[in-house]
């Protein structure tokens, strides 16, 4: 999965800056290609924020670098550090996970690794519903991933691992078929270990979708032939990168 950032960059390059009003008028399946910032109505400011995130993705820049690129907007909007971090980290994670989804759904990968496992960080910041999904395994083609492929909330840090049939058997994992979304579960307080009141197992509001799937269904895949199998690793990586960039129009 070393090339996931190429697909992440392609996903981000496809984003079109727009106002919230324009975004809301788009067909839902096309919204993966739209980018807006709540509270911003000027298109030039929305474009500036998108460009700052683009630079962060392209150059491996930090949150502080991102903030330094848009000081006037920050001052005008009086954005707090939390507000800025939500904008930055949610969009970076969305791009990265879209890239991951693109790779994970490659036919060769699906054939070799047909099961996916939800992976939460499981620390004091992990949301109860995300913690409840941690470690659960479903077929890669299960419709649950239309709802639960991360990010599943603002600043969500969850991911998805691919598994082969051998790994599932070796580790004694259970592959679930029934979708648990919407069922009641009892979360546990991460600090005290005490049970909390039952709640519905759902992603956060506004995150019950898979933007990676919505984007990937319209993106071409590079042709991979048998000849590259004999290449030394550095040349193989360089050739795969070239083919991905060509297929994705980078």
- Helicity range: 40-55%
Order of helices and strands: HEHEHHHHHEHEHEHEEHH
> Radius of gyration, rounded?
20 Å
Morphology call: globular
Care to count the β-strands? 7
Structure description:
Helix content is 46%, strand content 8%. It has helices spanning 4-13, 20-25, 43-59, 63-69, 71-77, 81-104, 107-112, 128-133, 145-148, 165-170, 211-216, 233-248; strands at residues 16-17, 34-35, 115-119, 137-139, 159-163, 184-185, 199-200. The strands form three sheets. Strands 4-3-5 form a three-stranded antiparallel β-sheet. α2 links the parallel β1 (16-17) and β2 (34-35). α1 crosses α6 and α3 (43-59) runs antiparallel to α4. The radius of gyration is 20 Å and the shape is globular. The two termini are 18 Å apart. The model has no long low-confidence stretch (mean pLDDT 90).
List the helices and strands and how they pair.
Layout: H1 4-13, E1 16-17, H2 20-25, E2 34-35, H3 43-59, H4 63-69, H5 71-77, H6 81-104, H7 107-112, E3 115-119, H8 128-133, E4 137-139, H9 145-148, E5 159-163, H10 165-170, E6 184-185, E7 199-200, H11 211-216, H12 233-248
Parallel strand pairs: 1-2
Antiparallel strand pairs: 3-4, 3-5, 6-7
Helix pairs in contact: 1-6, 3-4
Concise summary:
This protein is mostly helical and 250 residues long.
Keywords:
two-stranded parallel sheet, globular, 8% strand, single chain, 250 residues, 12 helices, mainly alpha
């Amino acid at each position: 999965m070393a090339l996931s950032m190429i697909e992440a960059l392609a996903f981000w390059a496809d984003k079109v800056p727009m106002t919230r009003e324009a975004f809301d008028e788009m067909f839902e399946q096309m919204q993966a290609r739209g980018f807006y910032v709540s509270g911003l109505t000027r298109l030039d400011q929305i474009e500036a924020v998108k460009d700052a995130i683009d630079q962060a993705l392209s150059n491996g820049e930090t949150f502080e670098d991102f903030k330094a690129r848009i000081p006037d907007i920050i001052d005008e909007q009086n954005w707090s550090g939390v507000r800025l971090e939500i904008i930055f980290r949610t969009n970076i994670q969305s791009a990265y996970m879209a890239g991951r989804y693109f790779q994970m759904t490659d036919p060769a990968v699906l054939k070799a690794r047909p099961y996916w496992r939800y992976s939460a960080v499981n620390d004091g910041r992990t949301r109860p519903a995300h913690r409840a999904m941690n470690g659960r395994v479903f077929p890669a083609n299960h419709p649950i991933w239309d709802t639960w492929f991360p990010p599943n909330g603002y600043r969500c840090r969850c991911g998805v691992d691919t598994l082969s049939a051998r790994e599932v058997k070796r580790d004694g994992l259970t592959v679930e078929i029934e979708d648990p979304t919407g069922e009641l579960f009892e979360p546990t307080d991460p600090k005290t270990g005490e049970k909390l009141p039952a709640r519905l197992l759902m992603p956060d509001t506004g995150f019950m979708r898979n933007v990676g799937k919505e984007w990937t269904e319209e993106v071409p895949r590079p042709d991979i032939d048998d000849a590259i199998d004999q290449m030394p690793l550095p040349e193989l990586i360089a050739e795969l990168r070239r083919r991905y960039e060509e297929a994705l129009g980078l």
